[in-house]
Backbone:
């Protein structure tokens, strides 16, 4: 299943994806496309399947039905080379999930050194650049336990970037943060988006979604209720569920 | 040194305290060789049993049911039978089944001696407990941390080697310490299959020299010091593995 993929095709193509956990159907036929360089924001109430959808994209969660293609490669294919997929897709989690026994610098270096087997000196230089990029210069030797939530999350972003991914998935990355530290993480994400990184964000930060999103998707109970560019989505949503959700949040 | 030996000799003459195993060159020589054998036995068993624990805990997380069942069976067998009976089983039941080799005098002898069998039986015995100890540590590692490693492209073995095991060790080190201390003390059981370790040599000396009380005190003191050194080393290891903001 190696269909030639060209950059003018969607970099992620999700078609009619169904996913159940036991008797509970979390995704009930979700389709969406992400084009290269686009920033997609997925919003919606808790339990609507947003995070599950994100996890399906890099094969952390298998799907029951449908198709997910990343750069033309079917993620659902049992013969899929997961390493190849995960080199392309970076993921940042709500709870940061740094390796607590490694310093910030080591956290960033681990995957390129052990997974990609790149030379250590070269990786270290790149890791130092990335830590500088997320504005954590001077914290290279700090352990996750010594960093604030916002700082840990920025290390996590640097850690994903060290694999040189084509797409970044952000799973409610500011949900566990103090209001003051949310901003520093959002600044980092905005810079990435401005550099042309393809981003898929699951977020509750409506203002941020509106500002940086090229396209907003609203999910509820396992389906995409409505989607559109932020200008129209936030001002003239047509579905009553979307309107009810937005009126609660905004 | 000579002065000390003379002093100990004088204790015997003056008060009847018989420390012949220190001042007599022959007795001292065989006692020291016995202690060295104990150290070698303990060190080998500690290393092998920890290795068994690490590999066993990894196999327990395997997708293959047969492997898991095999590890489970191994643990049940060695945890639910007395270690002395296990040692007898290895030495007297399995030992004679093994091929024999000719030694330098042209006499056929078993390929594995009593020391080797003691190492095997004690390592398997302590290893069974170590698997359970490492497993408790592995289970304490957050699923989300493992998921992060997965999303970075680590394979199953790399996740275990670089993420799960280092975190698990920090969690289970106190329990591991306990089991390894027990293992070091259980090396005295090798006495039963005539491994010339400390207890075996001590019993030879007290039979020859009739200084049971003094030998017992010497034995207890030796093990107190040996285990004390081990615990001190493990505490240092624990301290060197401590990570700010983790597990405190």
Residues:
């Amino acid at each position: 299943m190696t269909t030639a993929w060209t950059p003018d095709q969607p970099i992620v193509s999700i078609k009619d994806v169904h996913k159940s956990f036991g008797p509970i159907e979390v995704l009930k036929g979700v389709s969406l496309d992400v084009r290269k360089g686009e920033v997609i924001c997925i919003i919606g109430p808790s339990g609507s399947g947003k995070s599950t959808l994100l996890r399906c994209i890099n094969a952390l969660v298998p799907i029951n039905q449908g198709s997910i293609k990343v750069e033309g490669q079917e993620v659902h294919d049992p013969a899929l080379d997961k390493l190849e997929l995960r080199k392309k897709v970076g993921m940042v989690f709500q709870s940061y999930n740094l390796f607590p026994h490694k310093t910030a610098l080591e956290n960033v270096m681990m995957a390129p050194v052990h997974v990609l087997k790149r030379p250590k000196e070269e990786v270290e230089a790149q890791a130092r650049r990335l830590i500088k990029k997320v504005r954590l210069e001077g914290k290279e030797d700090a352990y996750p336990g010594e960093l604030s939530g916002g700082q840990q999350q920025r290390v996590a972003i640097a850690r994903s970037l060290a694999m040189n991914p084509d797409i970044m998935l952000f799973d409610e990355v500011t949900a566990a943060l103090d209001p003051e530290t949310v901003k520093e993480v959002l600044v980092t994400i905005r810079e990435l988006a401005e550099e042309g990184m393809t981003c898929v964000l699951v977020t509750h930060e409506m203002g941020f979604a509106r500002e940086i999103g090229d396209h907003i998707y609203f999910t509820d109970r396992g389906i995409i209720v409505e989607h559109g560019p932020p200008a129209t989505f936030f001002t003239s949503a047509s579905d009553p569920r979307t309107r009810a959700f937005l009126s609660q949040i905004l | 040194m000579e002065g000390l030996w003379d002093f100990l000799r004088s204790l015997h003459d003056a008060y009847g305290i018989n420390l012949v195993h220190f001042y007599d060159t022959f007795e001292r020589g065989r006692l020291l060789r016995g202690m060295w054998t104990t150290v070698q036995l303990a060190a080998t068993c500690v290393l092998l049993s920890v290795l068994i624990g690490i590999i066993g805990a990894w196999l327990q997380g395997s997708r293959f049911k047969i492997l898991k069942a095999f590890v489970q069976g191994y643990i049940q067998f060695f945890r639910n039978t007395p270690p002395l009976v296990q040692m007898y089983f290895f030495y007297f039941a399995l030992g004679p089944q093994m091929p024999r080799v000719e030694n330098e005098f042209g006499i056929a002898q078993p390929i594995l001696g009593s020391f080797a069998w003691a190492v095997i039986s004690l390592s398997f015995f302590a290893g069974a407990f170590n698997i359970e100890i490492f497993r408790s540590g592995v289970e304490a590692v957050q699923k989300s941390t493992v998921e992060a490693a997965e999303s970075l492209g680590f394979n199953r073995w790399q996740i275990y080697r670089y993420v799960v095991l280092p975190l698990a060790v920090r969690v289970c080190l106190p329990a591991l310490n306990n089991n390894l201390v027990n293992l070091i003390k259980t090396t005295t059981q090798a006495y039963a299959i005539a491994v010339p370790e400390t207890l075996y040599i001590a019993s030879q000396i007290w039979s020859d020299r009739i200084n049971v009380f003094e030998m017992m005190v010497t034995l207890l003191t030796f093990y107190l010091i040996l285990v004390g050194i081990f615990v001190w080393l493990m505490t240092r290891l624990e301290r060197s593995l401590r990570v700010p903001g983790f597990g405190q």
Q: What stands out?
A: The longest strand of chain A covers residues 24-34. The interface with chain B takes residues 58, 60, 82-83, 86-87, 89-91, 93, 95, 97-101, 110-111, 114-116, 143-146, 156, 159-160, 163 of chain A (CB under 8 Å).
